[in-house]
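As a warm-up, study this chain.
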Amino acid sequence: MTLAVAEERGGLEIHSTVLRKIVEHAADQVPGTLRHERRLAGIDLGIGEAGASARITTGTGDPPSVDVRLELTLQYPGPVRSVVAAVREKVGDELVRITGHRVRSMTVTVEGLRPARPIPARLH
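Now compare it with the structure written out below.
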């Protein structure tokens, strides 16, 4: 039994939802990024936490490329520029490692800065 050459066996398409989840997970692994409570119109919904949020647009080419729009909450105080640089590197590395896709462009928006732990209320 002989196997057909790779080009004759078909292709592999990775859905943008999978790419988005890889990007969000990779971003959440970088020290200095924070998960935050889920909110709607500024109101805590009480249904858990959310981390990085991404939108992915897939491109063409070999290797395939993606454009990433990423929204993060970061720890305060902290080095915003170096954390964002680490996020960019981690996301790019993970996409290539797991899917073979490369990041063509990445826009990072820091949605909030929060203390790593809640600040206790002060009693007067």
